[in-house]
Design a protein that fits this description.
- The protein is α+β, with helices and mostly antiparallel strands and 514 residues long.
- The strands form 5 sheets. Strands 1, 2, 3, 10, 11, 12, 13 and 21 form an 8-stranded mixed beta sheet that branches. Strands 8-7-16-17-18-15-19 form a 7-stranded mixed beta sheet.
- A hairpin with a 3-residue loop joins strand 7 and strand 8.
- The longest helix is centred in the last third of the chain and has 19 residues.
- The protein starts with a strand and ends with a helix.
- 51% of the residues are buried.
- It binds nicotinamide-adenine-dinucleotide (NAD) and lycopene.
- The site of lycopene has 31 residues, from helix 5, helix 6, helix 8, helix 9 and strand 16.
- The site of nicotinamide-adenine-dinucleotide has 35 residues, from helix 1 and helix 15.
Length: 514
């Protein structure tokens, strides 16, 4: 395929003659799953990524012999059975695969009221650990988590594709009528309401809040039941599994599969504009002036970025305004990427920890601390005798704006030491064993991930009806689709992988592909 390009006289603009079936803006996991699915169906696909490597918030960076995951290292979707193992399936579709390492404890919680609890991969063991703290709620605990399984079982029996495709919905309904009716029932529900049906102990309800908050960034009352069903069951079914070589391998492998399937990706290709003709999205313009055209345009940038930055403001659709009245940006994170000497960690330390000292501060800036130690699963990510400790805690961009360079650096350092001091109680000697420290703020996330205010995705502004208000992939602009955590069902790698499957399915039907 000749890559012929023409320059418009007296202008920076260069138009390529290749006409793609689909252009995907961004190579986050949402974008890459869309691209690989379409390429596997024979579509001519181009991915445009502003950064140097693929993956977005599931990317990586290397310093002094350490390979750090940019985002969270707790990965769902790598199971071997059922239909909800969407990362395994996405890789499989383009004939690539990844070795994964099972994580036998999803989280070790260090919570107020002496609640020190491990979420074991074995469901019964987890229930017994929790019931040991709340024996008077044994029945309620089982009934709540069993109800989560009901949601999961409904999802895990059917192909997960576009809910905007009526023929697929009809097929699913005829093949799995009870599962579809079950999902319809759960779509408007939140986990908190279901939990309160079975559980009365206020401390246990706080624990359920934390169970939700640590991946949805909102308490149980605002966490959709469908997502809770996925997370609270899949951790015991497909399990949490870590990709050998680090989270960044997922994107690297998807890109390998994309290219083998005939797709194309360009790095340092920042899209500045989505081009429209007669109201329809027809192409994109890059920062260097280059123009690419396609039958369909997909944005893996956030909705805020897509509709405020990439499209002229007069094209701002009214349903996007409405969506923004329901959803706001989740906080970003203050992130500590640490290299430590291995002696600091006791034998049998778990990979993921949640640390909180005061329930009232769960959702505050610097309230909950998330910790991942991926080298406990894959030691090759650090030099021999060292570990990676990735600690992060919610932070808002406003606290980091308008500072002088000196104050910004000083605030970063102070905040980092506040976190290290708190972690010393869980990992005594952390400070003394520190070999490397790199601190990121919401500004870092904004800069390197291109995410508005460094956000990790949308969260409800108030209690909503489950997932009902979350938009699917099509937008009000014909030819333009969104994918990733600003679309149904929201944040999380397995969630954005679903969004990618759904987006590619809808586009394939629109383009008449198989
Ligand atoms: N443990 C986990 O489950 C885990 C780990 C890491 C990340 N995540 C999740 O991944 C989700 C994000 O995935 P995603 O696919 O929605 O998005 P993403 O932010 O990861 O990827 C978007 C990509 O688009 C690129 N981009 C943005 N604007 C662009 C432009 N104008 N031109 C070209 N490229 C542009 C960015 O550089 C980035 O690579 C988050 O919600 C986070 O929760 C989860
Ligand atoms: C037919 C008719 C009528 C009807 C029908 C209906 C239906 C079919 C429906 C359907 C639905 C669906 C398909 C749905 C789907 C869903 C899904 C897939 C979901 C998913 C989800 C997932 C998730 C949410 C995930 C998440 C995760 C996350 C976020 C993670 C994170 C993590 C972190 C942050 C880490 C932390 C921690 C530490 C470190 C400790």
């Amino acid at each position: 395929m000749a890559n012929s390009i023409k320059k418009i006289p007296n202008s920076q603009t260069v138009i390529t003659d290749i006409y793609y079936d689909a252009i995907i803006i961004g190579s986050g996991i949402g974008g890459l799953v869309t691209a690989t699915q379409l390429a596997a169906k024979g579509a001519k696909v181009l991915v445009l990524e502003r950064y140097l490597i693929p993956g977005g918030s599931a990317g990586y960076f290397e310093r002094h012999g350490y390979r750090f995951d940019v985002g969270a290292s707790m990965i769902f979707g790598f199971g071997q059975r059922g239909t909800t193992n969407l990362l395994t399936r996405a890789l499989d579709a383009v004939n690539v695969s990844l070795e994964v390492i099972p994580d036998m404890v999803q989280i070790h919680y260090h919570l107020p009221n002496g609640l020190d609890l491990k979420v074991e991969r074995n469901y019964e063991k987890f229930l017994q650990n929790l019931i040991a703290y709340f024996p008077h709620e044994a029945k309620g605990i089982r009934r709540f988590y069993d109800e989560c399984w009901r949601v999961f079982n409904c999802l895990n029996c059917m192909d997960l594709l576009s809910l905007e495709e009526p023929r697929y919905l009809m097929r699913m309904f005829f093949q799995h009528p009870l599962a579809c009716l079950g999902l319809l029932r759960y779509l408007p529900q939140n986990a908190g309401d279901v939990a309160r049906r079975y559980i009365k102990d206020p401390l246990l309800l706080k624990f359920i809040d934390m169970e939700c908050y640590c991946w949805s960034v909102v308490p149980a009352d605002m966490t959709p039941m469908i997502n809770a069903g996925m997370v609270f069951s899949d951790r015991h079914y497909g399990g949490v599994n870590y990709p050998k070589g680090g989270v960044g391998q997922i994107a690297q492998k998807l890109v390998e599969g994309l290219i083998q399937a005939g797709g194309n990706i360009k790095y340092q290709a920042r899209v500045t504009q989505i081009l429209t003709e007669k109201g329809r999205a027809v192409g994109v313009k890059l920062a260097n002036g280059q123009i690419y055209r396609a039958k369909r345009i997909v944005s893996n940038a956030t909705r805020w970025h897509t509709f405020h930055k990439l499209l002229p403001q007069k094209k701002f659709p009214s349903n996007e305004k409405k969506w923004q009245q329901s959803y706001q940006k989740s906080p970003s994170f203050l992130t500590l990427h640490m290299g430590i000497q291995a002696y600091c960690l006791p034998v049998k330390t778990e990979c993921h920890h949640i640390v909180l000292e005061d329930w009232e501060k769960m959702a505050d800036s610097e309230g909950t601390i998330f910790v991942s130690i991926p080298t406990l699963l894959d030691p090759d990510l650090a030099p021999a005798g060292y570990h990676i400790v990735h600690a992060f805690t919610p932070h808002w961009i406003n606290d980091w704006q308008g500072l002088s360079v000196k104050n910004y650096e000083a605030n970063k350092e102070k905040a980092a030491w506040r976190i290290i001091e708190r972690l010393e109680k869980i990992f005594p000697g952390l400070d003394a064993s520190l070999d490397y420290l790199e601190v990121g703020t919401p500004r870092t996330h904004r800069r390197f991930l291109g995410r508005e205010d460094g956000t990790y995705g949308p969260i409800p502004r108030r209690k909503l009806r489950g997932l009902l208000a979350m938009p699917f992939n099509r937008t009000a602009i014909p030819g333009l689709y969104c994918v990733g955590d600003s679309t149904f069902p929201g944040q999380g790698l397995n969630a954005v992988a679903f969004s990618g499957f759904a987006c590619a399915h809808r586009i394939a039907v629109d383009l008449g592909l198989n």
